[in-house]
Amino acid sequence: EALAAAGKYPEVTALVDLASGHMGGKLSIASNGLEWPRVATGERYESFTVPAGALKKGANKLTLSVKPAADGDTALECDLPLFKENKTELIADSRWRKLFKSHNPEAFTQLPGGWRIADTGMAEDDMANVLYPFRFRAGATVFDFEAQLIDSDDERAVVARVADGAHVEIVSLLPGKVKLLYSGFEMPLDTKKFQRYRVLFYADRMAFSVDGEERFTTDKLTRSDIIETVLKGHKEKYFCQNVSSMLIGSLSGKGSGTAVWRDVTVGSLPGSVELRNFAVEVRFLDSPLRKAKKDWPMSKEFPDGVKLTSQPIMLSEAEAENAPFDASIPAELDVALDKGELLWVVSNGGRVTALVMRPDGWFSYPASPSTPLRVVIDSGSRQRYRIETTGGYHNIFKDGRQLLQYYAPGTRQFLNSYPDHFSPEEQAIILRGGTFVKTISTEQASSEATLFGLRINRSFN
Fold first, then answer.
1. Does pLDDT of 302 surpass 50?
2. Which one of 125, 172, 296, 436 has the fewest CB atoms closer than 10 angstroms to its CB?
3. pLDDT tens digits for range 54-69
4. How confident is the model over 308-347, as pLDDT tens digits?
5. E-strand spans in 317-412?
6. φ/ψ (deg, to 5) at 429
7. Residue 94 reports pLDDT greater than 70
8. Region of 212 on the Ramachandran plot (φ > 0 left; ψ -120 to 50 alpha; else beta)
């Protein structure tokens, strides 16, 4: 109160860790009748300003809400297994993995209506299946798939094993019925025709549905990390294969079975947001940012401003007397964008952040509607941006306020993704460390921006 009376009002920012970037932009926060404006959406984090009056002395009640989900709004749709032309080897970039070795050369066959997985039961280690491991936390996880049983002589010969990070279930397809092997539920069903199955894990219960109708629910869940439920008898090992994964095919060595699978989907419950951490930061306007001991020995200053063009303005290891950059470095950009786009790249020689600034905000490079990083800006006004690298993460600030923590790709990985997008001089900065900024213009649209300063230091020391 004394500080407020002296006119020293704080800036209050909320940083939300959603864990799943696909849900970014769907969370809303309000308190004391005031909604908190969103200022940034990242691959994993969201940042909100807390308006005056939204937090009062004492306890405050926050209301977190999620936008209504659209049809089919799930976190991740898994393509069906992708195989080479011989139909037996998975292609290199398939997200599915073979966990067991099949003795059947025709175990996997692509059909017009899906993928046929045939298990012959020739030996104890003969199991035709594919596994999809993923990183989800338990709760509100959906597994959807369609399957048509051809034949089966064992309850583990045609199965879908689903694990959400804490719990596991096995859906078994048999002639004339479907079973849940861990829960003990079974029901008569014409499994010889395509049916759509869904297993939905909440934090404390599981629901099983067939063709959109819930048929079974239970709060007696089976853990996925105990010795009785782990996958056994294979030589391969993939991260989260036991606790967070989906497997389709056979888990029976001597049993045999065949089915056709299609429309396999793994994701979070439509309309849900996974919230990991939540923090409110209070910073008074006169509090300093972390600064290097030397006052920006590498900088280009333009007090009256200079027009940016497609020719980049650069700071590289030459200005650092050819000394290598540390893993943790600061960089600043003082700029006003009037129209079009500009590109700002910051590299510590190991990882790189490349941001595209447009009138509707900052986007990770290359800017597109699906870009996972977005920072709201005030078009046409002069603003100061700062990036601080910390290991694999780069922290993004706007006018002294931290907005996002952004996971930066490796420099060679980045250049391999965009091999023809940068000049040799720009590539050298990305690989060795430094920063550059330039406008991006096309035949359809020009860009106008004014640069007041570009700064970088090779370390915080």
1. yes
2. 125
3. 888 888 888 887 765 5
4. 999 999 998 666 555 677 778 889 999 998 888 899 999 9
5. 330-339, 341-347, 352-358, 361-364, 374-375, 383-390, 393-398, 401-407
6. -65, -40
7. no
8. left
196 and 263 Cβ atoms separated by less than 8 Å: yes
Q: What is the number of other CB atoms lying within 10 angstroms of the CB of residue 214?
A: 11
Residue among 389, 358, 268 nearest 21 (CA) = 268
pLDDT for the residue numbered 74: 47
3-class SS at 309?
A: coil
Distances (CA, A) of 7 to 2, 3, 10, 132, 422: 9, 6, 9, 57, 48
For residue 444, the SS3 value is coil
Nearby residues of 261 by Cβ (< 8 Å), 6 or more positions away: 80, 114, 115, 116, 117, 145, 146, 147, 248
Residue with tokens 């997985």: 117
Nearest by Cα to 361 from 345, 392, 385, 332:
385
For residue 283, what pLDDT band results from cuts at 50, 70 and 90?
low
Integer-rounded Cα radius of gyration of the chain? 27
Q: Are 228 and 110 in contact (CB under 8 A)?
A: no
Which has the closest alpha carbon to 128: 151, 99, 155?
Answer: 99
pLDDT digits (tens, 9 = 90+) for 11-32: 677 777 665 544 556 778 898 8
Q: Cα 94 from chain centroid?
A: 18
Mention every residue, 6+ apart, whose C-beta is less than 8 A from residue 92.
none
* Structural element, H or E, at residue 207: strand 206-210
Name the CA dihedral angle for 187, 188, 191, 197, rounded to a multiple of 10 degrees. Answer: -30
- End-to-end Cα, the chain, rounded Å: 37
* Nearest partner of 411 among 429, 423, 386, judged by Cα: 429
417 three-state secondary structure: helix
Cis ω on the peptide bond leading into residue 10 (within 30° of 0)?
no
430 phi, psi to nearest 5 deg: -60, -40
